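Narrative of accomplishments. A recurring question from our advisory board has been how the design workflow behaves on a single, concrete structure rather than in aggregate. To address it, we present the structure tokens for one chain from the evaluation set, followed by the sequence designed for it. No filtering or post-editing was applied between the two.
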């Protein structure tokens, strides 16, 4: 794991980055990293690291839409639909409670339309994707807001 973080810090990014969303595609042997912050400035780029070749590639440069720059979000990988999901987080302009998907096939971001109630905006939550026999769920728990903490 130490070698991975060496690459992450010194090769990929011009300055060290923290609080990024990171997911692993076990079928393709790839790691995807979204956002994070460098020198307290949130980012919204997405990168792919191919484990077998130890090579990085930036994705989604030409995406029409992109999530607001953010850090401290949850991220998940949906292997059935070949997409990266991100939710929540804190950005340069506020705290979010949205969900975005990045299609690895089209290289495009899409804001997921949420119906019904939604959790309060938060950053640093716990969560991930759960695969049930008939559906996939993005779970969210805990997190922080400007002046409070969530223990749900």
């Amino acid at each position: 794991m130490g070698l991975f973080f060496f690459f992450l810090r010194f090769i990929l990014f011009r300055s060290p980055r923290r609080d990024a969303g990171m997911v692993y595609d076990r079928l393709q042997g790839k790691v995807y990293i979204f956002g994070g912050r460098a020198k307290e400035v949130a980012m919204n780029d997405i990168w792919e690291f191919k484990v077998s070749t130890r090579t990085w590639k930036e994705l989604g440069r030409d995406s029409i839409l992109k999530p607001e720059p953010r850090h401290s979000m949850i991220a998940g990988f949906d292997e059935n639909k070949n997409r990266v999901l991100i939710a929540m987080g804190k950005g340069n302009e506020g705290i979010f409670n949205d969900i975005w998907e990045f299609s690895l096939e089209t290289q495009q971001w899409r804001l997921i339309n949420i119906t019904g109630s939604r959790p309060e905006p938060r950053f640093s939550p716990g969560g991930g994707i759960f695969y049930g026999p008939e559906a996939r769920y993005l779970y969210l728990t805990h997190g922080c807001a400007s002046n409070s903490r969530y223990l749900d």
